[in-house]
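For the sake of clarity, the format in which proteins appear in this thesis is described at this point. The fold follows as a row of integers, each naming the local backbone shape at the matching residue. One such record is shown here in full, so that the layout can be seen directly:
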Amino acid sequence: MLAKEIDTVIHTHDGKGTFLDIHKISSKTEFQIKDFWSLNDRDSFFERHKAQLLELPQFRFAKINYRIEDGKLIQASKYSSDRDLWIIGSNDKGRKTVEFDYIEALQFISANGFYRIHTSDLEVDQYKFVRIDDGVVSFSGPTEIRDFVYHYALQACKDRDVHSMLASRLGTLLGSDKLERLAKIDDSFDKFEPHIQRMFYRNGQLQITSRGIEFGDILGQVWQDKVIRRKFKRIPIIDHIEQNPETGFVVHPTENGMNCEFFKFLLNVSNFWNIPGYTPSVADEKEYQQHIVNKITSIGFLLCDYKYQTELKAIVAMDGQMGEVSQSNGRTGKSLVGVAVKMMLEQTTIDGKTLKNDDDYIYSNVTLRTRNVFIDDVRVNFDFERFFAAVTGDLAVNPKTKARFIIPNEKSPKFYITTNHAINANNRSALERITFMAFSDWYNDNHRPIDDFGHQFFADWDDEQWCLFDNFMAECVMYYLKSLSEGWYRTGQGAVPPPMRDITMRTLKQQMGEAFYQWAEVYYDENGTNLNDRQVRKSIYDAFHSQFPDSKFGVTPSNFRTKLVLYCQFKGYHFNVNKANKAGVVFSDWCKVHPDESFIGESDKSGGVEYFSVFSTAKAQNEPF
């Protein structure tokens, strides 16, 4: 019946039928289309929907909240007046005049949440405009304020002369010199508290602690960029995580958790034992679980606003598999974690491939609202120590077109860095500022996440996947705070490191260089005569350069000893065992306390000649007396 009505009405000249009217909108303006639903006139809208509106405490029309009192429509704001923003009168010749009431206009603008605000990236006498609407704070501007006033006038007044006056003169009437009379407020909306993280969604607020996740109404005022434009529904992803100092970690997901694609992705990139026919050992399973907890707590660290002074670190994600120095493997999923963090907070991305050590504008796009700096795919021999001050202290920002400003440490963004190589962090102080994440080669050039999940992450997700993702990310924060409070790794640190052997080995190999490694593998072959032999330093140095003459700039007389020590640590060999180490401990005593570590003895010189000896305990045990 309805189909027959549509077919009949669509062929009439006026488009009117018994049950419905049909309008041709291709030739109508947006204003005319809104008239179909009385969206251009608040009074008409009120009369049309009075029955429903009378049941509401307040409602919004054209960006302004209203309520009904005694059957009348009034603004639901902290300031309400019977006066208009315009004054209609007549001059001494009896002609109609329209004047603008500045005091009434400024009170009206303030009543609808517009303020001036000074932020630390501005000069002393500068300010920005913001609007606070239902507790959500967003940056505004003079144009938006004038538009707000003009569209209110279109709704509240049908006098064309008023409209004409405002349309032609509002830029002058509410210029910057007039708007600077608006009230000035402080930038105090970010409240970062220890042991509590708040996340905001369209339908409410999460309060996350080490004990759990609570969901409720948004309390107080919050910056708009902190409101995630999705709705939240609580669905547990991880039931619990066991932690035992002896046996390690065990992550227990829920049934819903195993439907969370991002969680399953992290399980895959933590699996280093995906080898046909290989059965992981108990030790392998222990490492696997630690890799998972490492990623969960590291993501939680990045999402947590509050900065603990005991954990001023950067998260550095790198490939865990060994490869040749300078060989770029990649495609393992490291950048996908950075994108996931971006889905939760304000992030500034820096292309690591084009990063220069002397770039004064590296943080040019960082703002006071930035919560994470994602440096993606840094090159081989990336100098982490350059970022040491930014990670541990205040962040100095030098925008290209604006004045420099400082973001204090407690409000500065955290760093997530990805690399296909090893990070050059040669001293303990630098290493103390890094928590690593290691990625397996589950994903590579020939196998991508889309091959496992059938679609792209984020862009192709439905509401269910987004809901599971949001719950998982909230739980990452919860378990980070739990690790911090219970000391899963160490006191004052919540991000659990991964098993470090493979990362340490990759770093050692990169620091010595591929050419040096290849030479040393041959020179110190366990079947040869150079291992466990005291030799003149110069003769060893000359032996290297006779095989690799083009490496004279990379391997010099001054760093040759360092390269050889790195090789010893990589292979589990010892260096200069006939000399005590720098702590004065001799080799035999060292081995009793450090059976699995390399011994590094001090310089061995005699008669003005320096000697090196590389010692293998295994070779010595197999040699006859």
